[in-house]
Amino acid sequence: xxxxxxxxxxxxxxxxxxxxxxxxxxxxxxxxxxxxxxxxxxxxxxxxxxxxxxxxxxxxxxxxxxxxxxxxxxxxxxxxxxxxxxxxxxxxxxxxxxxxxxxxxxxxxxxxxxxxxxxxxxxxxxxxxxxxxxxxxxxxxxxxxxxxxxxxxxxxxxxxxxxxxxxxxxxxxxxxxxxxxxxxxxxxxxxxxxxxxxxxxxxxxxxxxxxxxxxxxxxxxxxxxxxxxxxxxxxxxxxx
Length: 240
Prior knowledge:
The structure is a single chain. By secondary structure, the chain is of the alpha+beta class. The chain has one domain. 17% of the residues lie in helices and 43% in strands. The protein has helices at 2-18, 136-148, 152-161, and strands spanning 37-39, 52-53, 59-61, 68-76, 79-88, 91-97, 104-110, 115-120, 125-130, 163-169, 172-181, 186-193, 199-206, 209-221, 236-239. A 13-stranded mixed sheet has the order 2-10-11-12-13-14-4-5-6-7-8-9-15. A two-stranded antiparallel sheet has the order 1-3.
């Protein structure tokens, strides 16, 4: 049970380090195509509603294409923030909103330029540094994807400590997981994409109040406009 409580804390670290987002997604909406199956044994469980219990040997597919984007909305108490991500051909883009200045910060990791940019659209300036794999935005991106995608060990842990059900959430087929903590009046819930093996929603409730949450929205497959991964012409770029 340790990992999914740790997961909340890790997601919140990302959110608090970036704090929010406020720009529109220009990508084209379509479904993912390629599939990589990772089977895991999940016991059949009983339920009294209209959902279908997950059967033994059900295959959960952990499945990310090379080009995709999504919006991560996270919350602590009543405060919610969002960060938008794009990935394409080894390049990354992340947009956040500064909670103090209310200005958008754009971070671009360019495969073409082998550079990392921090771009302030409102001020028309950017800084440029040589890209270093495993550091900075690279590390943040991989950290986010890994923490929101399930592995077999984690799934087995969930199976041993809670219940899975097949339900529909926002038009998607998902595995719903719920675990109550005895004596703490606390419950953790997960909605896991049946097709992608991705935690599309997660929340922790204590004393009837949602204290931590995250949700993946606008999950889309590329290709995207290459201009998303470049600094616009006319922007003053300072090399560090």
